[in-house]
Amino acid sequence: MTAPPPSVWATLQTLGSSMDFQTKVYRNDTSGLYLWVSYIKPMVDIETVARSIFPYLFHRPFSSLEDIRQALPIDDAYISSDPNDVKAKLLEGYLFIRLHETDETGLLIKAQKTLERTLTIPEVEFSVVGPKESFIESLETNLYLLRKRIPIDRLTVKMTRVGTLSKTKVAVVYIDGIANPDNVQTVLQRIEQVEFDEMIDSSYIVQIISDNRHSPFPQLLDTERPDRVAAVLAEGKVAIMVDGSPHVLIGPTTLVEFFSSFEDYFLNWTIASFFRLIRLFSVTFSILITPIYVATLNYHYELIPKDLLGTLITSRREIPFPPILEVLFLELTIELLREAGARLPTKVGQTIGIVGGIVIGTASVEAGLTSNVLLILVALAALASFTTPVYKIGNTIRLMRFPFILFAEMWGLLGVAFCFCIVMTHLLYLTSLGRPFLAPLYPPRWRDLKDALIRLPFTSQSKRPETLRPEQPIRFNRKKAKEKRDIDE
């Protein structure tokens, strides 16, 4: 036999086992009828109830729930007898009002408490020029920041809930008529198929819906800047916003986007291109400099200039360890300092990072554990890794150095080249929402290179990225954008 469907009364009894669930009985002064008001106290704004609800319940005559609903100055109030609906709304911060204690039908009134922090400047993607607003943990506020920048009717928001326990609200945002429907459908389908109990942050979403969940490379770009999300939506991308998370996911994305700061668009295109090239060089230097050091000292002495060879021999004359152990010791020390600085309070973490680096570096050289040349190289590599504007790709770069070091120890520069081929093969197979992750480099999209390794002027970017396959590829008229007319013409 199948179990009988749950009733509203049974739902209230279940919620009543929690001490923060309250049911109070009030008497209407005019009609003499009694009201059973149920609610979860931490979820309800008591001031709103006292100011906007109770005065209309106790001092006006009524004979039915519909009379109460009509008298209330609150739009979000309706009559319901669905147990699941009543339970969900009570958990969100609604009042449930009945005329009799055992009634299965009641009036649900929104009285939700909203606590959120004020808008602040971006902390991870800070820029000297440009807007200083960042997303916060409120989904409604984040949608407001987005609609304020794109005030058009084609900006579409699809809402769903994820998490069997958390019931977290997730919004998929795109511009209808520009975004490719295949990309939108892919995102919606993957989010609706998520099977997880607790969805706390957007970082959970990106790990679950990514094309390759085992890849160290992030396949969706996360940002805390509303201006950046508005800009990529205009290109034809899709944004994923999670209630309770100040970071918004963007897709499909490409590898080169992780090395472009949004501040690049606030600078002259020549300066922005120069900074992008510096970042790409810094990332390459950060990954390869210590593996090349190990490979050169173990297998390729002949590649070292004679003037520099004497310096290296002098610095390593009293080092008792092979280059691989020397490098691993310093690299792990840098990682320990990074983790310690990140986990400690801000002021203490800064002190640990600076003082710890100076003390440990100086002591290790004086003790003969590492060479001063390697200490300089590792410090420069750590400094170069900080130039990445996206935090998650910075973590990937930190991880990639270690397999390169191991391959360099085994086979020298041939091992470095072999490890590079493995990484490139992985990147060639990697996709973001089904789109090539290495685009526009491979497959080559020459038109999209205008905003990849370098950034050309805005007048040259009259078409949206070909990789996204947008429904409306033309952004503006290029010829008119290049025209310069004075007022007397």
UniProtKB/TrEMBL annotation:
Signal peptide: none annotated. The chain crosses the membrane at residues 277-299, 349-367, 373-391, 403-429. It comes from the Bacteria. Keywords: Membrane, Transmembrane, Transmembrane helix. Residues 463-489 are annotated as: Disordered. Belongs to the GerABKA family. This is Spore germination protein. It comes from Geobacillus uzenensis. The lineage of its organism: Bacteria, Bacillati, Bacillota, Bacilli, Bacillales.
